[in-house]
Amino acid sequence: MLELRSITAGYARNAPVVRDVSLTVAPGESVGLLGPSGCGKSTLARVAALLHRPDSGTLLLDGEPVRRWRHRAPREKRTAFGVVFQQARLSADPRLPLTDLIAEPLRATGRGDEVPGRIAELAPVVGLTSDLLTRRPHEVSDGQLQRACLARALVLRPRLLVCDEMTAMLDASTAAALVAAVEDYRAATGAALLAVGHDRTLLRRWCDRTVAWDSLI
Ligand SMILES: Nc1ncnc2c1ncn2[C@@H]1O[C@H](COP(=O)(O)OP(=O)(O)OP(=O)(O)O)[C@@H](O)[C@H]1O
């Protein structure tokens, strides 16, 4: 269970871009957060995934208040989340072949021995063939790179997925494939989802419930 209570967050002192917003994602639930460009959805998503410390408010994970964000957050809390961003190229180390990009969270948590097994399981789930896995980001398309970023988000088997405009840069068939991969993962594991975007049709089809940004403020 993820609960955001009265979250205020931003990037400059006394200039919040998110003001007093509350949102709950129940275990296994999928919630779509809809809003226009620039309203603060991504900022709230980053707070929810422990990547951005709010100025005020409380975030509860399974009823327990989170007190530390980013690298200071306890590992078991950080690894509860898998996050996929809109711009795969900004979130991928350009030096890493896709296989190492997907494996990053395993190596960072001392679970390097699981890499071959997890890559073999995840590559077909996200639709990456073995020839693509050895290429670096500049040698693959945006859609192929986003497939790898989704695999990276799934590699530690998170309980909560945060997809921030995951499909916004993709063609319709790649978008559908990635949404299907997320839903297969959720069906198999019971993971919850916070999907952020501005595409009402997509989020309404994808999620159990959609919340309009305007209704939160
Ligand atoms: N790193 C940053 N530093 C300063 N301001 C930022 C930063 N990131 C975002 N902002 C500002 O915060 C506001 C909210 O941005 P945010 O990315 O959360 O909106 P969004 O609703 O996700 O927009 P979009 O749908 O266009 O991605 C915007 O005015 C943006 O310019």
UniProtKB/TrEMBL annotation:
Give the matching Pfam families.
ABC_tran
Gene3D superfamilies in the record: P-loop containing nucleotide triphosphate hydrolases (3.40.50.300)
**Under which name does UniProt file this protein?**
Peptide/nickel transport system ATP-binding protein
Protein keywords: ATP-binding, Nucleotide-binding, Transport
**What is one process in the GO biological process aspect for this record?**
transmembrane transport
The UniProt entry, under PANTHER family, shows: D,D-DIPEPTIDE TRANSPORT ATP-BINDING PROTEIN DDPF-RELATED, TRANSPORT ATP-BINDING PROTEIN
Q: Sorted alphabetically, which InterPro entries does this protein's record hold? A: AAA+_ATPase, ABC_transp_ATP-bind, ABC_transporter-like_ATP-bd, P-loop_NTPase
What family does this chain come from, according to its entry? Belongs to the ABC transporter superfamily.
**What region holds the ABC transporter domain?**
2-217
What are the recorded GO MF terms, alphabetically? ATP binding; ATP hydrolysis activity
